[in-house]
Amino acid sequence: MNEPLSPKEIHAYELRLRSLLGTMRDESEDELATLASFAEEQGDTGDEAAEEAILDVDLTARDTVEERMVLVERALERVGAGTFGRCVTCGRPIERERLELVPEASECANDARAQSGRAGSAGA
Description:
The protein is mainly alpha-helical.
Protein backbone atom coordinates (compact mmCIF):
# COMPACT_ATOMS: atom_id res chain seq x y z
CA MET A 1 0.00 0.00 0.00
CA ASN A 2 1.28 3.42 -0.93
CA GLU A 3 1.28 5.70 2.12
CA PRO A 4 0.50 9.45 1.89
CA LEU A 5 3.42 11.86 1.94
CA SER A 6 4.47 13.28 5.29
CA PRO A 7 4.45 17.07 5.83
CA LYS A 8 8.26 16.96 5.71
CA GLU A 9 8.20 15.19 2.33
CA ILE A 10 5.63 17.65 0.97
CA HIS A 11 7.81 20.57 2.08
CA ALA A 12 10.82 19.02 0.32
CA TYR A 13 8.78 18.66 -2.88
CA GLU A 14 7.57 22.24 -2.56
CA LEU A 15 11.18 23.47 -2.41
CA ARG A 16 12.09 21.27 -5.37
CA LEU A 17 9.12 22.53 -7.41
CA ARG A 18 9.93 26.17 -6.62
CA SER A 19 13.54 25.64 -7.67
CA LEU A 20 12.45 23.88 -10.86
CA LEU A 21 10.04 26.68 -11.71
CA GLY A 22 12.72 29.33 -11.15
CA THR A 23 15.17 27.46 -13.36
CA MET A 24 12.61 27.05 -16.14
CA ARG A 25 11.68 30.76 -15.98
CA ASP A 26 15.34 31.76 -16.24
CA GLU A 27 15.91 29.39 -19.17
CA SER A 28 12.77 30.63 -20.91
CA GLU A 29 13.89 34.26 -20.60
CA ASP A 30 17.37 33.38 -21.88
CA GLU A 31 15.87 31.51 -24.82
CA LEU A 32 13.65 34.46 -25.77
CA ALA A 33 16.66 36.77 -25.69
CA THR A 34 18.60 34.32 -27.88
CA LEU A 35 15.74 34.10 -30.39
CA ALA A 36 15.51 37.89 -30.59
CA SER A 37 19.26 38.15 -31.10
CA PHE A 38 19.21 35.43 -33.76
CA ALA A 39 16.40 37.20 -35.65
CA GLU A 40 18.35 40.48 -35.61
CA GLU A 41 21.58 38.83 -36.80
CA GLN A 42 19.91 37.00 -39.68
CA GLY A 43 18.44 40.06 -41.33
CA ASP A 44 18.25 39.30 -45.06
CA THR A 45 20.36 36.19 -45.47
CA GLY A 46 18.09 34.92 -48.22
CA ASP A 47 17.63 31.52 -46.56
CA GLU A 48 14.24 32.20 -45.04
CA ALA A 49 13.18 28.53 -45.10
CA ALA A 50 16.14 27.54 -42.90
CA GLU A 51 15.47 30.46 -40.55
CA GLU A 52 11.80 29.49 -40.25
CA ALA A 53 12.68 25.85 -39.54
CA ILE A 54 15.07 26.87 -36.76
CA LEU A 55 12.49 29.26 -35.33
CA ASP A 56 9.78 26.55 -35.41
CA VAL A 57 11.98 24.13 -33.46
CA ASP A 58 12.84 26.82 -30.90
CA LEU A 59 9.20 27.85 -30.48
CA THR A 60 8.10 24.23 -30.05
CA ALA A 61 10.72 23.72 -27.35
CA ARG A 62 9.62 26.93 -25.63
CA ASP A 63 5.97 25.82 -25.74
CA THR A 64 6.95 22.53 -24.10
CA VAL A 65 8.80 24.36 -21.32
CA GLU A 66 5.86 26.71 -20.81
CA GLU A 67 3.44 23.77 -20.60
CA ARG A 68 5.62 22.15 -17.95
CA MET A 69 5.82 25.44 -16.07
CA VAL A 70 2.02 25.47 -15.88
CA LEU A 71 2.06 21.92 -14.49
CA VAL A 72 4.64 22.90 -11.86
CA GLU A 73 2.57 25.96 -10.89
CA ARG A 74 -0.50 23.72 -10.52
CA ALA A 75 1.50 21.33 -8.33
CA LEU A 76 2.48 24.26 -6.10
CA GLU A 77 -1.20 25.22 -5.90
CA ARG A 78 -1.95 21.68 -4.73
CA VAL A 79 0.76 22.05 -2.06
CA GLY A 80 -1.02 25.19 -0.84
CA ALA A 81 -4.40 23.47 -0.94
CA GLY A 82 -3.11 20.47 0.99
CA THR A 83 -3.78 18.03 -1.85
CA PHE A 84 -0.26 17.58 -3.24
CA GLY A 85 0.75 13.94 -3.55
CA ARG A 86 -2.81 12.71 -4.02
CA CYS A 87 -4.16 11.68 -7.41
CA VAL A 88 -6.64 14.25 -8.74
CA THR A 89 -8.59 11.42 -10.41
CA CYS A 90 -8.90 8.71 -7.75
CA GLY A 91 -7.66 10.44 -4.58
CA ARG A 92 -5.09 7.74 -3.75
CA PRO A 93 -1.49 8.71 -2.91
CA ILE A 94 0.76 9.18 -5.94
CA GLU A 95 3.67 6.75 -5.90
CA ARG A 96 6.87 8.24 -4.46
CA GLU A 97 8.84 6.80 -7.39
CA ARG A 98 6.58 8.70 -9.79
CA LEU A 99 6.96 11.95 -7.86
CA GLU A 100 10.73 11.53 -7.85
CA LEU A 101 10.69 11.35 -11.65
CA VAL A 102 7.86 13.83 -12.25
CA PRO A 103 7.41 16.02 -9.16
CA GLU A 104 4.59 17.95 -10.83
CA ALA A 105 2.55 14.75 -11.39
CA SER A 106 -1.13 15.15 -10.60
CA GLU A 107 -2.17 11.53 -11.13
CA CYS A 108 -1.05 8.15 -9.87
CA ALA A 109 0.64 5.88 -12.42
CA ASN A 110 -2.54 3.89 -13.11
CA ASP A 111 -4.66 6.94 -13.85
CA ALA A 112 -1.88 8.58 -15.88
CA ARG A 113 -1.65 5.43 -18.04
CA ALA A 114 -5.42 5.37 -18.44
CA GLN A 115 -5.42 9.07 -19.42
CA SER A 116 -2.63 8.45 -21.91
CA GLY A 117 -4.59 5.54 -23.39
CA ARG A 118 -7.71 7.69 -23.75
CA ALA A 119 -5.71 10.44 -25.45
CA GLY A 120 -4.09 7.92 -27.80
CA SER A 121 -7.38 6.30 -28.77
CA ALA A 122 -9.06 9.67 -29.31
CA GLY A 123 -6.49 10.51 -31.97
CA ALA A 124 -6.82 7.16 -33.72
